[in-house]
Every structure is written in C-alpha cells, then in structure tokens.
TrEMBL record, chain A:
GO terms for biological process: transmembrane transport. One of its GO terms (cellular component) is plasma membrane. Signal peptide: none annotated. Belongs to the binding-protein-dependent transport system permease family. It comes from Rhodovulum kholense. It is a multi-pass membrane protein. The chain crosses the membrane at residues 12-31, 72-95, 107-129, 157-181, 202-221, 267-288. This is sn-glycerol-3-phosphate transport system permease protein UgpA. SUPFAM superfamilies: MetI-like. Residues 72-284 form the ABC transmembrane type-1 domain. InterPro entries: MetI-like, MetI-like_sf, UgpAE/MalFG_permease. The keyword Transmembrane applies. The keyword Transmembrane applies. It comes from the Bacteria.
UniProtKB/TrEMBL annotation, chain B:
The chain crosses the membrane at residues 7-31, 82-106, 113-131, 143-163, 192-213, 250-274. This is sn-glycerol-3-phosphate transport system permease protein UgpE. GO terms for cellular component: plasma membrane. Residues 78-269 form the ABC transmembrane type-1 domain.
Length: 294, 282
C-alpha cells in the first residue's frame, strides 16, 4: 500500500476516525456474511425449533437441485445478453457522438440520464410497454403475427427483463466509451487516414483495439450489474417467472430465504454468490492495475 | 473527424437521434399514461399523446394516495426517499472521508488490516447477504425506522478509495508546513483537507444521492409501515394488486415522480456526475 512521508502522530486519533466505518462494516457486512457461512453448514427444522450441523449437505443438495442449475443457466443467458446488448449499443452511440462535432454535448445529456432511473422503475416502464392487453409493443408485434405474452412465455419474459436492464445500462457504457474514444490521440487516426485507411478500417484496426481495455472493464462491470443490481428489475416485473424462466441467482437467494424460508439452502447460495463477486472484484482490480500502466 | 464525409456524419446524427428517441420513449409513455383517466386502460391501446386528466391523477396521488393498493400519499413517499438518499449520501461521505484521513495521514498498527476490512465490503453487496443482514437489523430493533433504512448501507469502500487516492496527491510540504505552523491533525483536516476535497465530495454526492434514492430491495424488506415507504418501492406495492390489473395512471404518475429528482440531479450537474462516475471506477 502506498504511504506518505509526512504524517501526524497520535496514539488514539486514527482509531477514533476509523471507528464509524469499521463499526458499520463489522455489524452490517462482516457479521451477516459470517452468519451466512455458518448457516450454510446447518439445517433448521421447518418450525425453527432445532438446528443441527449437516456439513456440506446444503451445498451438495444445491448442486443436485435442477432448480438451482436452471437458475445458473438463466443468469448466464441474462448476463451475456444484457452485457452484449448494452455494450454494443453504447459503442455504436459513442462512436457516432465522437464523430459529430456540433451538438455533441446535448446528445450526451440526452443519452446519459437513464443512469439515474431506478432499476425497479425501468422494469415497470418496460413491463407496461409490453403489457399483453394494452401495451404498445405487443400491439405492434401482433401486426407482425407474433403473439407476445411475457406472463406465459419463458422467452418473452427473458426478452423483457433483458431489454429493461440493458436500457438502463447503455448510458453508463456510453460515457465510458466516449471518454475512451476521446483519449485516443487524433494523430493516430490522421496517420492511418494518410496511409489510405477508410473509416471502417480505422475503426477495426486502430480505434477498437485501443478501446479494448475500456471494453473489458465494462464487461466486468456489466456482468456485476446484471448479477446483483438487476434484482429490482426482476422483482418488479416477472418475479422470477414464468416457471422459473427469469429466476436469476440473486433472486433465488431472496426467494428461498424470505419466501421459502429454506435458510440453509439460501445461505449456501449466498456463499456461492460471494465467491462469484470476489472473483469478479479480483478480475476488476487486476485489470485496473494494468490499465494504469497502459 | 479526420476527413470530410458528409454521409457518415449524417449517419452519425441519425444513429444518435434514434438512440435519444429510443431511450426517451418508455419515459414518454409513462408520462402520457399518467395524464389519462384509468378508464382508458380498460381496453384497447395505450395512448401516445398526453390527455387532460393529469390534474386529477397527480392530485389524488399527492392528496390521499391510493388506499386500495396500499400506497400512501406521494409527498410522504418522496419525503422518505429524500431522507434516505440524503442520509446515505452524506453518511457515506462523512465516514469515508474520516477513514481515508486516518489511513493516509497516520501510521498505526493494524492500518493495513483496516484498509482490507473496508475493501471487503466491496465484495458483499446487500443482495447477496440479504437474509442474515435482515436478521441483524431486526435484532437491533431497527426495522421500520429511518436508521434501519440508511445506516446498514453507509459503509463505502469506493468512497474511501476515492478520498484516499486524492489525499495521496496532496504534497508532503503542505502537511509539513501545517505542522510547523502548529496545526494539529484535526485543524489540518478542517482547514486544509476539507476545503480541498470540496469538488470530490460534490461529485461523489451526485452519484451517492442517485444510489440512495434508487434503493429497492432494502426498503422493501425493512419497512412494513406505510409511513416509511419510499417512492421506488411504493411502485412495487401498487403494481402488486391481487387478481387485477394495476391502476396504470397512478402507477405511472408515481414512476414519473420517482424518476424526476435523480434525473434532474444528473442533468443539472452533468459535469460533476461524469467526474464522480469515472473517478469512482479508478
């Protein structure tokens, strides 16, 4: 860890300054996380009268549970779709905004505000647009001969939550891509243009490779976003349904723990998720160290 | 732009305009829905142009709320959201700047441990440890209180890192000069560090205010008392009506007003917002 040369001397003051943060961290983060780990090795009877130690039984049951494996698959499809869609659209918009000279600031303003919309609200907005009876999009799809129903069809429900989540995330990715594009020295593009490379060739051989650190960073951030923050999108719209088709991992932890009251299984799922976040955070920080050199 | 290609520039404008429209469309529809009477939604299609019923809809939502779907008046929910967002944003900034100050400007045993403990919070989003955290808050008797809404969320690794990063750029000479002039650590903090951190605090505030306002799962589980509902979770309660279609005009009026404050903050303070967002990830 980096340190300063000049510091202050006090035996007690630093501890006092750190106390509030560490207290909150311990009481509301570390203790509950520890409880989740402990609980994941225990099983409670349905009335909560007795608990016993069951070793890794909660975990082995989890891995044999088709519902859990399904949830993994759903999460994978969901994360990849949201990340691909929102990164792709954001890149297209950022490249366009980078090209435009006039009005480039107003476009940015008009594109970034959805960042401020709560995921739950984003979900409700799209849910309304896709409402099978009165929504505008099913009406248009009906004209094309498609019978939309996100309450009955698994695929439709997935498309709904993917669109709602990607809609909100585009603005974030757009800002980072735009910053990345503006950091590319103009001389590189000019040199390529003088050598006869057209706009498409320049994008493929120069701009996109130079954006790859940004793209990779956004990929990690977007996967983290879809795995955790989209809880609200799911809860406000499909509620994990129909038939578990949109029951992503974080949603299942909540459902099994709060609604199903299967505490052992929910705790084991929490521990698995903590492992996933740790891996993602590790990747993110490894990468950022390299980005600084770059 | 390297060379003059009007076609490509026109295409770029077209893409951007389409993008802006696609991004705004769901919100426009929500606003339109809030201006029509509920009978419009019984059959047929959602209108695309505002109606003239907005006064009744918003009047009802602000006045009495909708008791049938358990939604308290909007003013109350917005007030709760504001209290929650401000407590989270200010709380996070306050405790993070103090811990960053301790970590950067002092040498003391367990300094590294403290840093890592704060770092770990980054890996424990509330969604992941929701059941045991709920239990802790319940055991502390903090359910259905403002403290229960805000305090469990105010630990912040990212804010601490941001301040730490900034403090590391402050020249040693400044610290030494302050010490020679007889300033103790607290005086140095108050008279030199705080004024220098003003921009960082403002940028962070914009991001954290949005974060706090948009909280969903946490208020949903810690409040059962209608007087403590926040507006974002209130929408969920209004949508969840058993065996009936939600009253769309009221739902969408609530959604519109739930979006308004954070969106205004982003638009009005765009420069600070971008700074906060990009620096937070460094």
């Amino acid at each position: 860890m980096q340190s300063r040369r000049a510091t202050f001397r006090s035996r007690w003051l630093p501890y006092v300054l750190l106390a509030p943060q560490l207290l909150v961290t311990f009481v509301f983060f570390l203790w509950p996380a520890g409880q989740a780990v402990r609980q994941s090795f225990l099983r409670e009877d349905p009335f909560g009268l007795s608990t016993r130690f069951v070793g890794l039984d909660n975990y082995t049951r989890l891995l044999q549970d088709p519902g859990y494996l399904n949830s993994f698959q759903v999460t994978l499809v969901f994360s990849v779709s949201v990340a691909a869609l929102s990164i792709g659209l954001a890149l297209l918009l950022a490249v366009s905004a980078d090209r435009v000279i006039r009005g480039h600031r107003s476009y940015t303003t008009l594109l970034v505000w959805p960042y401020a919309v709560a995921p739950a609200v984003a979900g409700v907005l799209w849910w309304f647009m896709f409402n099978p009876t009165i929504g505008i999009l099913p009406y248009l799809l009906d004209g094309l001969g498609y019978d939309w129903n996100d309450r009955l069809k698994a695929g439709d429900a997935m498309i709904l939550v993917v669109l709602a989540s990607a809609w909100k995330q585009v603005s974030y990715n757009f800002l980072f891509f735009l910053a990345g594009l503006q950091a590319i020295p103009q001389s590189l593009r000019e040199a390529a243009a003088i050598d006869g490379a057209g706009p498409v060739k320049r994008f493929v051989t120069i701009v996109f490779p130079l954006l790859s650190p940004t793209t990779f960073f956004l990929l990690v951030v977007n996967v983290t976003y879809t795995m955790f923050e989209t809880f609200a999108v799911i809860d406000a719209t499909t509620g994990g349904g129909p038939a578990q088709a949109t029951n992503i991992l974080v949603y299942k932890v909540y459902q099994d723990g709060f609604i199903g009251l299967n505490l052992g299984s929910s705790a084991a799922q929490s521990v698995v998720l903590m492992g996933i976040v740790m891996a993602l955070t590790f990747i993110q920080f490894r990468f950022i160290e390299r980005r600084v050199q770059y | 732009m390297v060379e003059h290609r009007p076609v490509l520039t026109a295409l770029a404008h077209a893409v951007l305009i389409l993008g802006v429209l696609a991004v705004a469309f769901p919100v426009w529809l929500a606003f339109v829905a809030s201006t029509h009477p509920s009978t419009t939604f019984l059959s047929g299609l959602v209108p695309l142009w505002p109606g003239d019923h907005w006064r009744e809809t918003y009047g009802q939502m602000f006045g009495t709320g909708i008791s049938t779907s358990g939604a308290p008046p909007l003013g109350l929910m917005m007030g709760n959201s504001l209290i929650m967002a401000l407590s989270i944003a200010l709380g996070k900034i306050a405790i993070s700047i103090l811990s960053a100050f301790a970590i950067v400007f002092f040498r003391f045993p367990f300094r590294h441990l403290a840093f890592w403990l704060i770092f770990v919070t980054l890996m424990l989003p509330v969604e992941v440890r929701i059941v045991p955290t709920f239990k802790v808050v319940a055991d502390l008797g903090m359910l259905n209180s403002y403290a229960g809404l805000a305090v469990p969320l105010i630990a912040s690794a990212t804010a601490t890192f941001l301040f730490r990063q900034f403090f590391l750029t402050i020249p040693d000479e400044l610290v030494e000069a302050a010490r020679i002039d007889g300033a103790g650590p607290l005086k140095f903090f108050r008279d030199i560090l705080l004024p220098l951190s003003r921009t960082n605090m403002a940028a962070l505030f914009v991001i954290l205010f949005i974060y706090g306002w948009n909280q969903y799962i946490w208020p949903l589980i810690v409040t059962t008392d209608e007087r403590l509902y926040t507006v974002v979770m209130g929408i969920k309660r209004m949508v969840d009506v058993a065996d009936a279609e939600p009253q769309w005009n009221y739902v969408m009026a609530t959604a519109t007003l739930a979006m308004l404050p954070p969106v205004l903050v982003v638009v009005a303070m765009q420069r600070l917002f971008v700074k906060g967002l990009i620096e937070q990830e460094k």
